[in-house]
């Protein structure tokens, strides 16, 4: 092998890692691109994109499938698998996304919708993660699917817990505002992840940790609220203390 060919040789690694020389753009068998300077190896992994898509799937799985499919079908990104670009997949995702857009903004209906999607969202995150990593059924692909599914499950639990806390509010505006923020966050971060996967994954991790802390904070306040209300009712029934304002 000549020195020139040796310098242009590309090596592939699990999880979509690839390296190249001479500053050329290369693409691994899993669809991940990288650009490397002469004599310098810079691996690019699909795992950050899988993590971000898993976080987004836990919030709105149908939006993830729809957006990724549209990004791939319109040529915005070549990272999207063909399975997500099929017309039937896009149509089904669009219809289900519209259903979720309505149900997600109605108090208590959103919580019922979340319960019904406790299995759907993690499974969707796992499938999307496996498709992004590749379709060979290898151990790296299965690991990517597990990462997407587990991230989607945690993200889903954070969303469901937050909605339960918000539903204690008597006005419906908070549900609508929160739902719109979630939709915008999913769309914006997913689009950002296609071009800057590492930064997007870091933001998704930060949002996930913040959401977990917020859920614990909200649930502690809810428990304290119901405990105080029960104490005031008991005191009023016993004729001790002033009646509760409500």
From TrEMBL:
<keyword id="KW-0812">Transmembrane</keyword>
<dbReference type="Pfam" id="PF13548">
    <property type="entry name" value="DUF4126"/>
</dbReference>
<feature type="domain" description="DUF4126">
    <location>
        <begin position="49"/>
        <end position="213"/>
    </location>
</feature>
<keyword id="KW-1133">Transmembrane helix</keyword>
<dbReference type="InterPro" id="IPR025196">
    <property type="entry name" value="DUF4126"/>
</dbReference>
<keyword id="KW-0472">Membrane</keyword>
<feature type="transmembrane region" description="Helical">
    <location>
        <begin position="199"/>
        <end position="219"/>
    </location>
</feature>
<protein>
    <recommendedName>
        <fullName>DUF4126 domain-containing protein</fullName>
    </recommendedName>
</protein>
């Amino acid at each position: 092998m000549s020195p020139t060919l040796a310098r242009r040789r590309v090596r592939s690694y699990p999880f979509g890692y690839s390296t190249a020389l001479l500053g050329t753009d290369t693409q691994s068998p899993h669809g991940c691109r990288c650009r490397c300077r002469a004599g310098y190896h810079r691996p690019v992994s699909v795992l950050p994109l899988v993590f971000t898509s898993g976080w987004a799937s836990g919030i709105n799985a149908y939006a993830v499938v729809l957006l990724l499919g549209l990004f791939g079908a319109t040529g915005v990104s070549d990272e999207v698998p063909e399975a997500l670009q099929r017309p039937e997949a896009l149509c089904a995702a669009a219809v289900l996304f519209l259903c979720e857009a309505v149900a997600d903004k109605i108090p208590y209906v959103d919580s019922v919708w979340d319960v019904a999607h406790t299995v759907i969202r993690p499974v969707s995150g796992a499938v999307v993660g496996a498709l992004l990593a590749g379709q060979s059924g290898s151990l790296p692909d299965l690991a990517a699917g597990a990462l997407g599914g587990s991230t989607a499950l945690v993200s889903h639990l954070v969303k469901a817990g937050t909605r339960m806390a918000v539903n204690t509010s008597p006005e419906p505006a908070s549900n609508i505002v929160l739902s719109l923020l979630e939709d915008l966050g999913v769309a914006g971060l997913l689009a950002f992840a296609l071009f800057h996967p590492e930064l997007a994954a870091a933001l998704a991790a930060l949002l996930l940790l913040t959401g977990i802390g917020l859920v614990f904070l909200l649930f502690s306040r809810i428990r304290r609220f119901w405990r105080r209300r029960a104490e005031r009712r008991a005191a009023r029934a016993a004729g001790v203390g002033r009646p509760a304002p409500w």
